[in-house]
Write a structure and sequence with these properties.
The complex is a heterodimer of chains A (116) and B (113). With 116 residues, chain A is mainly beta. Chain A is built from no helices and eleven strands.
């Protein structure tokens, strides 16, 4: 079946622009996660949804970052007034169940954001 | 707070040689540990995971890892490396709720012919 997909795969923004990154999870997956991966580093947790509820947003680096999943399926990560330090790969992952670490998080290919 | 350290940023091995990638974690309770592989342009793929029980876990692609509580380590091993194993490898620990993975900085593996 289809995996997690993300769009666009590449995004170039001028500093100060707003961007929206989309994640289509595996159909029927309850949990959805966003991670930020800076160049040469491991992914860092941003936020977590269980269905449409955003249960943890402790990793969002500033109030310029906003995520939503209004119907419990597709999710959008929005970054307002982008800064150069926002340049990174943004990874989305989905998981079948609602809680617990036992089931696998399936990752999408990521969106590479470059802020000029 | 949980954390993961991968001491080796780059490792180069010859094809057919054995491999060990190091991972040390810090976590207050019983850790849930994972190894992922990331190839260029690809998403992260789970190689194996440890929750409890047998401390030697087998994964896909011939990889295995051993959990050592006394050393806070979860090292990844493969007896004979193939050229297709060249990639970046990440060790991760999950919190109890499983809602957050904390990753190490990664180890880039290069394979010499």
């Amino acid at each position: 079946g289809a995996g997690v997909s993300q769009s666009p795969r590449y995004k170039v923004a001028k500093r100060g622009q707003d961007v929206a990154l989309r994640c289509d999870p595996i159909s029927g997956h309850v949990s959805l996660f966003w991670y930020q991966q800076a160049l040469g580093q491991g992914p860092e947790f941003l936020t977590y949804f269980q269905n449409e509820a955003q249960l943890d947003k402790s990793g969002l680096p500033s109030d310029r970052f906003f995520a939503e999943r209004p119907e419990g399926s597709v999710s959008t990560l929005k970054i307002q007034r982008t800064q150069q330090e926002d340049s990174a790969v943004y990874l989305c992952a989905s998981r079948l169940d609602g809680a617990g670490p036992y089931n696998e998080q399936f990752f999408g290919p990521g969106t590479r954001l470059t802020v000029l | 707070a949980q954390s993961v350290t991968q001491p080796d940023i780059h490792i180069t091995v010859s094809e057919g040689a054995s491999l060990e990638l190091r991972c040390n974690y810090s976590y207050g309770a019983t850790p849930y540990l994972f190894w992922y592989v990331q190839s260029p342009g690809q998403g992260l793929q789970l190689l194996l995971k440890y929750f409890s029980g047998d401390t030697l876990v087998q994964g896909i692609k011939g990889f295995e890892a051993e959990f050592k509580r006394s050393q806070s380590s979860f090292n990844l091993r493969k007896p004979s490396v193939h050229w297709s194993d060249a990639a970046e490898y990440f060790c991760a620990v999950a919190n109890n709720a499983g809602n957050m993975l904390t990753f190490g900085g990664g180890t880039r593996l290069m394979v010499k012919p």
